[in-house]
Amino acid sequence: MTKSAPGEGSDYNAEIIKEFRASQGRVGGPWAGTTLILIHHIGARSGVERVMPLGCSSQGDGRFVIVASSGGSPIHPDWYYNLKANPRITVEVGAQTFTVLADELAGAARAELWPKLVAESPSAGEFQTMTTRQIPVFMLIRQDRPAQELI
After folding, report:
1. What is the mean pLDDT of residues 76-87?
2. CA quadruple 116, 114, 142, 42: dihedral positive or negative?
3. CA 20 to 30 Å from 18, out of 7, 27, 63, 151?
């Protein structure tokens, strides 16, 4: 059983999460036009559930890609380690909430997808130039499907 973190993180993230939920996944300001996903990740050490809004790329067939850019920081974001330790998470996309398995892409799979992600979101490429670490890419694979999709 996981504990929930008090609040939803920073005030900035809390406002994005609130707007996301009130408008079925659409937000304005600098995020207008960006597909957002809310990931519910479990702390690797604390066991506390946290919610993080992230830009994502829909890959179809219940798959979404997120990148652990951390704005080009030299270190991975905390949620990266949480997904590595606890890859089965809940996400919110639009008005839907479902379970996904977070799989970090490596080698050819990452190399093939990376240019497409940068073309879709040039900031990912900019962030990569700001750090010496390779920015991790996760494929989120939907684990539970609505009944009408299973037919």
Report:
1. 97
2. negative
3. 63
C-beta of residue 84 within 8 angstroms of C-beta of residue 104: yes
Kindly report whether the global pTM for this prediction surpasses the value 0.85. yes
Nearest by Cα to 52 from 37, 73, 30: 37
The long-range contacts involving 123-130, CB below 8 angstroms and separated by at least 24 positions, are 123/69, 124/67, 124/69, 126/72, 127/69, 127/70, 127/71, 127/72, 128/69, 128/72, 129/72, 130/71, 130/72
Residue 144 pLDDT class (50, 70, 90 cuts):
confident
Q: Is the pLDDT of residue 6 over 90?
A: no
Q: State how far the Cα of 52 lies from the Cα of 135, in Å rounded to an integer.
A: 18
